[in-house]
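Write out the 3D structure for:
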Amino acid sequence: MKYASLVERLQGKRTSAWEIHHAAQVARANGEDVIVLSVGDPDFATPEPIVERAVDALRAGDTHYTAVVGREPLRAAIAKEHARTTGRTVSAANVVLCAGAQNGIFAASLCLCEAGDEVIVPEPLYLTYEACIRASGATLVPVPVDPARGFHLDCDALAAAITPRTKAIFFATPCNPTGVVMPRADLERIAQLAREHDLWVLSDEVYADLTFEREHVSIAALEGMAERTVTVASLSKSHAMAGWRVGWVIGPETLIGHLTRLALCMLYGLPGFVQEAAIAAFEHKAQIVADMREVYRRRRDVVYERLSRVPGLRCLLPEAGMFMMVDVSGCGLDTVDFTWQLFRAQGVSLLDASAFGDTAAGFVRLGFVVDEARLVEACERIAAFVGSLRLNVK
């Protein structure tokens, strides 16, 4: 039987990068002593007030269909938070719920782009962006970001990538995998380019609440950007709710209408008890986010302090999020061999960062997704593995 050409656009090197993570999950399920640092699913339990709200809703029979766009109270809470952080007035009419941020990016791609369009994305970029963009028929145009500059954007290179076919600029700030938070000056330059060339901007802000030293700025807050910006976010990382699949898209009302019709075909609304849990997440946001941010900061510092001492490794201190980029090019292995040999020898799974783009060749991505004791143990195992490589070279 013959399949549509779409299936070919949904696969490739970026999606195959998850194979080591799947292998680690199988090993752990079989009782092996593995430390899984290859995915952004933190070890925290979802905070109790959120769980209790969901349980109460279930017991009250909240198991029926809900509004496709999402319940008004939750969308209003999202709009209120967005207005607080951007200084721009938005309402529930500017918000549609989706099953996690990636679903929102996929849906927005289908509504914004079509065959013949080009979408500029700074690289390294999150693994599924390529498939999301290619599914619309558009072409992804990566703009390499120099690791020597800490993976910060070269705005001149981005400007040079714009052509008459350019339809949109997609980016994540804070960025997965690099942990880079875009400074306001870079966002101002992107906004200028978007206004001059009449481009859409999709801003993935999933990690916005988990910044450390640098303040997060949403590009939607900048002059003339609200009407051309699509903001995508979720509760997965900030509230330890990865498995709840609560995300949203904020944008112009016309776009929200298009996305709602697409959601009608794909999702038909998020479960009501999940939406009630999400409302509780916003009610308790200040304390939950503060606690999460502090835990990730401590974990980041623990890993950085230990791995920075290992000869052959070079760590980049992330400005946000739950990942660290580690340059392993001094170890004598390419990143695919490094990750698989490390996993087989020491039971630690990391992700080959070159899957996020050729710019990240030589780097692996490590997640702060287990407690400090296990992170220390993981660092010791990594150090032992790197040490064995150096002994073999000698």
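The CA atoms of residues 85 and 262 lie 28 Å apart.
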